[in-house]
C-alpha cells in the first residue's frame, strides 16, 4: 500500500516523496516579467517537495492577464529562471515549469491595448483580478484559424526555453478557465471550424500543444493540468465526464508523465475515473489535508498530492507532515503583491528532527 512519504517514479522523474508543490501565482516577477533572486529564495526554501510546480508562466506577451507574473518567451526571462532552477537543484530539489496562456482572462491594460483572444467572443463574468481600479472582463476577440499555429509555436518555444533554463520537466496548463480550457469546454467554445463543435475538435488545440511540448521534452517529462469541475472563470461543459474522459484517453495514448487535476474530494468528483482511463500517474490537487492525502494515495486513487496554500505557509511542509508538527497559517492578504512579506518569511521548524 503506497504511502505519502514513499518515493515514486512519475514518467521519467524519480521523486523522493509524494508531497508536491502546486503551481501558485504570486505576482512577484521583476520588470519585463523576469524572475528574480527573491523568487529563487522562495522556491529553494521549498526544495524538499517531491516536485515543485512553478507558478503559471506565460508563453507569449499576449498570454498574460495579471501584474508581475513571469514569462518564458525572452532571453532575459530564461536567465532569470536559471538562477531559480539552480537554487532548487543546489538544495536537492526538482522543478518543472507550467506553460500558460490566459486567453480571455485578461484586459487590454496588460496587452498594450489589444483585446484578449479566445476561441469565441464570449466574455468571462466578473472583474479582472489584481487590477485597480476594477474593470469587468472585456469581450475577447475570437482567434482566427490562421493564428492558431502561432499559439502552438509559442508553447513549443516556451518548452524549449524551459529546457534551456534548467527545469526538469514541463506541464501544460489546461485548467482553470485559461485558453486551452476555454477551447476544451463547450460553454466557452462556440466555434464552427475544426477547433469547435464535437469534443474531438474542442480538444484539438490542447492536444496539439501537448504534442509540441512532447517534441521538445519527450513524453516522460510532460504533464497536463486539468480542472474537471469547471468551476473557475465562468467555465462549464454540458458533458464534463465525456469531455475529460476523451482528453485523458488521448493523453494516455501519448504516454505523458502525468495528469494533475484540481478537483477536491466531494460530490461530482471524477478523478478516479480519469486516472483509470489515462492509465498513467495521476496527481490530485485542491484542499487536501495530510489525512485525506494519505487516504487517497493509499487507496490508489492518486500517485501523489499537490498542496497549494499549505506550501505557501510552510516551506518545510514534508517535514511538518512527517512529524505531525503544527502548521503555519497562510496569510491570504499577502498571496499577491510585492516584497518578501508573506513570501519568504514564513518560519521553518526549529527541531533537530526537521
Description:
The protein is α/β, with parallel strands linked by helices. The chain contains 11 helices and 12 strands. The chain has an 8-stranded parallel sheet with strand order 3-12-11-10-9-8-5-4. It has a two-stranded antiparallel ribbon with strand order 1-2. It has a two-stranded parallel sheet with strand order 6-7. Helix 1 packs parallel to helix 2 (75-90), helix 3 (148-164) packs parallel to helix 6 (204-217) and helix 7 (240-254) packs parallel to helix 8 (271-278). The chain is globular. The chain starts with 7 loop residues before the first strand and ends in a 31-residue tail after the last helix.
Write down the Rg.
19 Å
Count, helices: 11
Distance between the termini: 25 Å
The helix content, as a percent range, equals 25-40%
Strands ordered across the widest β-sheet: 3-12-11-10-9-8-5-4
Attribute tags:
alpha/beta, 14% strand, single chain, 31% helix, 354 residues, two-stranded antiparallel sheet, globular
Quick overview:
The chain has 354 residues and is of the alpha/beta class. The chain has helices at 37-45, 75-90, 148-164, 179-184, 199-202, 204-217, 240-254, 271-278, 290-298, 309-313, 317-323; strands at 8-10, 13-15, 19-21, 52-58, 95-100, 117-118, 141-142, 169-173, 222-226, 258-262, 281-285, 304-307.
Amino acid at each position: 500500500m503506497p504511502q505519502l512519504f514513499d518515493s515514486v517514479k512519475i514518467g521519467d522523474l524519480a521523486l523522493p516523496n509524494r508531497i508536491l508543490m502546486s503551481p501558485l501565482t504570486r505576482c512577484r516577477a521583476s520588470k519585463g516579467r523576469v524572475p528574480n533572486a527573491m523568487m529563487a529564495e522562495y522556491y529553494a526554501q521549498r526544495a524538499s517537495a517531491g516536485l515543485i510546480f512553478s507558478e503559471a508562466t506565460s508563453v507569449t506577451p499576449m498570454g498574460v492577464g495579471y501584474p508581475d507574473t513571469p514569462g518564458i518567451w525572452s532571453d532575459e526571462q530564461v536567465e532569470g529562471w536559471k538562477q531559480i532552477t539552480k537554487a532548487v537543484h543546489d538544495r536537492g530539489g526538482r522543478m518543472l515549469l507550467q506553460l500558460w496562456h490566459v486567453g480571455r482572462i485578461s484586459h487590454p491594460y496588460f496587452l498594450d491595448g489589444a483585446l484578449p483572444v479566445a476561441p469565441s467572443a464570449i466574455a468571462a463574468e466578473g472583474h479582472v483580478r489584481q487590477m485597480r481600479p476594477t474593470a469587468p472582463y472585456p469581450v475577447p476577440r475570437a482567434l482566427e484559424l490562421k493564428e492558431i499555429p502561432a499559439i502552438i509555436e509559442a508553447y513549443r518555444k516556451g518548452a524549449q526555453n524551459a529546457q534551456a533554463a534548467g527545469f526538469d520537466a514541463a506541464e501544460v496548463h489546461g485548467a482553470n478557465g485559461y485558453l486551452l480550457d476555454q477551447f476544451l469546454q463547450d460553454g466557452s467554445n462556440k466555434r464552427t471550424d475544426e477547433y469547435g463543435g464535437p469534443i474531438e475538435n474542442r480538444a484539438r488545440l490542447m492536444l496539439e500543444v501537448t504534442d509540441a511540448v512532447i517534441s521538445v521534452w519527450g513524453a516522460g517529462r510532460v504533464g497536463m493540468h486539468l480542472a474537471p469541475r469547471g468551476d473557475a472563470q465562468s467555465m462549464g461543459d454540458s458533458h464534463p465526464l465525456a469531455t475529460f474522459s476523451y482528453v485523458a484517453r488521448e493523453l494516455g495514448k501519448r504516454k505523458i508523465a502525468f495528469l494533475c487535476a484540481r478537483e477536491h474530494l466531494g460530490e461530482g468528483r471524477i478523478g478516479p475515473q480519469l486516472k483509470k482511463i489515462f492509465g498513467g500517474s495521476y496527481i490530485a490537487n485542491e484542499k487536501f489535508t495530510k489525512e485525506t492525502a494519505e487516504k487517497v494515495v493509499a487507496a490508489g486513487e492518486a500517485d501523489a498530492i499537490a498542496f497549494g496554500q499549505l506550501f505557501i505557509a510552510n516551506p518545510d511542509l514534508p517535514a511538518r507532515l512527517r512529524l505531525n508538527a503544527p502548521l503555519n497559517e497562510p496569510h491570504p492578504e499577502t498571496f499577491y503583491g510585492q516584497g518578501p512579506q508573506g513570501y519568504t518569511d514564513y518560519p521553518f521548524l526549529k527541531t533537530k528532527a526537521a
